[in-house]
C-alpha cells in the first residue's frame, strides 16, 4: 500500500479529499473545482484509491468517489503516532540539553 501521509500531503489530493467530505461525487463534479484536466484529476483519485483513502462505485457509465472511513482512520492513526513520536523526541532532546547545561 502507498504511504497514506505522503499521498494525502499532496495539495490537489488534499483538496479532493476535502471536497469529498460533502459526500459522493463523480470525477466530472470534482474536476469542475480545478484548472487541471479531468484525466489529471482521475489520476489523483486513482492514487487516493490505491492508498485506501477513497473508494469508488460504478453506476452505469459513472464512477462515484467517496472517502473511505477505514482508510481515514488509518491515516489519523499514522498522523497521531507521527506527532507523538516527534513530541517524544523533542522532550528527550530538551531533557538532554538541560542535563548537559546542568539545568533541572
Relevant terms:
transcription regulation; Metalloregulator ArsR/SmtB family transcription factor; 13% strand; 3 strands; transcription; 104 residues; WH_DNA-bd_sf
Description:
This protein is an alpha+beta fold and 104 residues long. The protein has 5 helices and 3 strands. It has helices at residues 4-9, 11-20, 27-31, 38-50, 69-101; strands spanning 25-26, 54-59, 62-67. Strand 2 and strand 3 form a beta hairpin. The model has no long low-confidence stretch (mean pLDDT 90).
- Order of strands in the sheet with the most strands? 1-3-2
Number of helices: 5
**Share of residues in helices:** 55-70%
Supply the helix-strand structural class.
alpha+beta
Count every beta strand, where a strand is a DSSP E run of 2 or more residues: 3
Low-confidence stretches: none
Distance between the termini: 45 Å
Keywords: DNA-binding, Transcription, Transcription regulation
Organism: Rhodococcus tibetensis
InterPro entries: ArsR-like_HTH (IPR011991), HTH_ArsR_DNA-bd_dom (IPR001845), HTH_MetalResp_TranReg (IPR051081), WH-like_DNA-bd_sf (IPR036388), WH_DNA-bd_sf (IPR036390)
Protein name: Metalloregulator ArsR/SmtB family transcription factor
